[in-house]
């Protein structure tokens, strides 16, 4: 499925754009990757189906429905668009394992610290980086993701952002240990096939991320998956 293109990618960072988009295009859409393609990695890092999962920028994706169909028991979804949250609350009113809440990821104060075992992000950080005050807003989001995670909880970021650009951003304000995985982008039928490397095999990472190019070559046609484990801050 192809959804409409905004006048500028900067619109991706603006709430009004998403309300307008979901008001006019209600069919389900999954950014970047669908659950079946990512399931082996989710199973690896969120191995217990009772673990509490937060999906940020959920939109009208069926990703969370597929997680519940796979046995996950508590999947909380947030999005800044009231239009899409209202629609998803109505759609899944009979699925107690799925919760939908209108929330700005830069301020998730309704959630207590250490509330979740995992946070999954398919394109939300990327969208924020398209908007105004992008670095400040991205830092606020990452601080909130770190706060709502339990110690040793995982932030699974699926993005087009290469390590040279994303690693520094991730490390600026939060204490993470980071592993990198890659998955090829959708094929013509919307499926992802891994050529030569298993999705669950991490890519070697150096401090700057420049080593990845030696492994994958220049401009690989992949999405990058950063698995960021929350490390407790050292006591002063």
UniProtKB/TrEMBL annotation:
Pfam families recorded: Methyltransf_11
**Would you tell me the protein name for this molecule?**
Methyltransferase type 11 domain-containing protein
| Key words, A-Z | Methyltransferase, Transferase
> Could you tell me which species this protein originates from?
Hibiscus sabdariffa (roselle)
Instruction: Note the InterPro entries from the entry.
Output: Lys/N-term_MeTrsfase_sf, Methyltransf_11, SAM-dependent_MTases_sf
Its family? Answer: Belongs to the methyltransferase superfamily.
Q: Does the keyword Protein biosynthesis apply?
A: no
What sequence ranges are listed for the domain Methyltransferase type? 54-156
Has the keyword Transferase been applied to this entry?
yes
Taxonomically, the superkingdom here is Eukaryota
